[in-house]
């Protein structure tokens, strides 16, 4: 059956395929899904893994499963680490966007990390096509985030974006619909959570899970000192006795625990500015740096960058949605899509 026929039954999609969360945008409808990038498989009696949950439902099961149930985060550092898990996840989101209709073969735009390798590009294209897409376009995440945040990416002026996701932080200077200079480092939200887990194990002899670390980061985490020290009760398992225990932590110690990932992000932004052509750097001094991605929601991360770099820093209006909105806007402008998408 011809692709044009399938197109009659399909809505074009934009997907922000993130390490921590996946967002889906449907043309003319907006964002229809925002769920964790996780899949749960059950090993059946025949030794075959069957998908039993994806997204929010799957995350609720994580760290609470018996031996015959496997929790998979298909993306690591922004790229596919488990092809079958990623395909199952994409199929779920594509079907959900179309209300589980059959005969669905949409055109799909996917946000991918800056400096993605040819092998990684091929993996994303093949996984998305196997999940049901008839056409696949890839846009680098910093470019998509800049478009989604409303920056004038096609104009001859410097625009700097810092997209802090779960697995990677993407820093780019954009002008004339291209990335003049950029860097991608695998130090982001997940690393902050790992640092919190390590700190609490080392200082308090308490074991906590990833979900608890995420709650701590969101609740009392900050990137720059505030006038008020926040405190929080944390429950976990004693390191030696393995019995449940509750402790009290504060925002100062959590900030200190995240210094490694935060320092790497600051250094990456500084290096990018140092390697930016002078005329574009002058534009950035005037216009400032825009923060996007879930990591931009960490309290005072804009203050930290402003104090360390000496350039105005703003957080995007909806930082979590910038990449998927940018991919979505490109669906409405085919000329822009051709200009900013990666060649096959």
Protein model, in words:
The protein has 344 residues and is an alpha+beta fold. It folds into three domains: 3-37 and 73-143 and 323-340, ATPase, nucleotide binding domain (Nucleotidyltransferase, domain 5, 2-Layer Sandwich); 147-187 and 260-319, 2-Layer Sandwich (Nucleotidyltransferase, domain 5), CATH 3.30.420.40; 189-257, ATPase, substrate binding domain, subdomain 4 (Actin, Chain A, domain 4, Alpha-Beta Complex), CATH 3.90.640. It contains 13 helices and 18 strands. It has helices at 3-7, 56-61, 83-97, 118-130, 141-148, 189-204, 210-220, 251-257, 259-274, 278-287, 301-309, 322-331, 334-340; strands at 13-17, 21-26, 30-36, 39-43, 49-54, 69-72, 75-76, 79-80, 107-112, 135-140, 159-164, 169-175, 178-185, 206-207, 231-238, 244-250, 289-292, 313-315. A five-stranded mixed β-sheet has the order 3-2-1-9-10, sandwiched between helices. Strands 13-12-11-17-18 form a five-stranded mixed β-sheet, with helices on both faces. β17 (289-292), α11 and β18 (313-315) form a beta-alpha-beta unit. α6 packs across α7 (210-220) and α6 packs antiparallel against α9. The longest helix is centred in the middle third of the chain and has 16 residues, at 189-204. The protein is flat, with a radius of gyration of 21 Å. Mean pLDDT is 91; it is low at 1-9.
